[in-house]
Specification:
Elements (H helix, E strand, L loop, with lengths): L1 H20 L1 H28 L2 E2 L2 E2 H26 L2 H7 L2 H5 L5 H7 L10 H11 L6 H27 L10 H11 L8 H10 L7 H7 L5 H27 L7
Antiparallel strand pairs: 1-2
Helix pairs in contact: 3-7, 3-8, 3-11, 8-11, 8-12
């Protein structure tokens, strides 16, 4: 673990140095991120001004939900997104060979080689929405469950994205980014607004409700401890599945030297 912590620190330093070489581009990316956040806030303010509730979700709950979604999205884009959509390029160009022969876990390197630091701009407005919408009283237990649930949400979103990106080992020309962005749209809305069949799918088949809806309910004192802990368990299973799927896919990978 210490070795990978040092490696992650080196990757962070390298990415900071790279971003500082193109400061104007980095600043514009930050401005673009804040611009997207502003559009989201304008849309949200319009919705909550006209609709008192979505299903069982009141206005303050919607603020927390969207804020949680922005936090998860910002962390995922910063840590993993750039790497996910390079997997297909690695396969097409044969550079995956160089990753596989390095003395580092291949999944770690293919997932964390690059950081998109400008995506951290989503965190501030996301945290702001959560603070504005959070219900009193402040309860430590719910807050800790919210933090762990949000971390689990990041892990689940990573696992889903990684599995989709890994399929490019078989379908070399496939572009899975659009599908992941479609999943983002699903996570912005409360689970209650979907029909029962859709809710069942997003709970037991593709567990997207654990990414933002469950942590938001927990912070608003509307959730159940068992459901929050189930989200952590689902994230562990999702990560295990993603890892197994990666090694299964590698068995089908034909390197440029083969």
């Amino acid at each position: 673990m210490r070795y990978y912590a040092r490696l992650m620190l080196a990757i962070f330093h390298n990415c900071v140095a790279r971003e500082m070489q193109f400061r104007a581009s980095f600043v514009m990316s930050l401005i673009s991120g804040y611009g997207w956040s502003l559009v989201m806030l304008l849309f949200l303010s319009t919705v909550v001004a006209r609709v008192q509730a979505l299903g069982t979700w009141e206005q303050r709950d919607i603020y927390v939900l969207v804020g949680t979604f922005m936090i998860v999205q910002g962390l995922t884009q910063c840590l993993f997104e750039t790497n996910m959509w390079r997997i297909g390029s690695h396969v097409r160009e044969g550079t995956l060979d160089f990753i596989l022969i390095k003395p580092v876990d291949s999944q770690f390197l293919v997932s964390a080689r690059f950081l998109r630091l400008s995506a951290l701009g989503l965190l501030l407005p996301g945290v702001g929405l959560v603070v504005v919408g959070a219900r009193a009283p402040f309860v430590w237990a719910d807050t800790l469950l919210y933090v762990s649930g949000t971390a689990a949400g990041v892990a689940i979103l990573y696992a889903v994205s990684f599995v989709l990106a890994t399929t490019t080992i078989w379908f070399v020309r496939a572009e899975m980014g659009g599908l992941v962005y479609g999943l983002f749209d699903v996570m912005r809305l409360p689970a209650d607004v979907y029909p029962k069949g859709v809710r069942f799918t997003f709970t037991y088949v593709l567990p997207l409700i654990f990414i933002a809806s469950v942590p938001a309910q927990t912070l608003q004192h509307r959730g159940h401890v068992a459901v929050s802990l189930a989200g952590v368990g689902v994230s562990i299973l999702a990560l295990a599945f993603a890892r197994a799927f990666w090694f299964i896919a590698l068995r089908s990978y034909a390197s440029t030297g083969s």
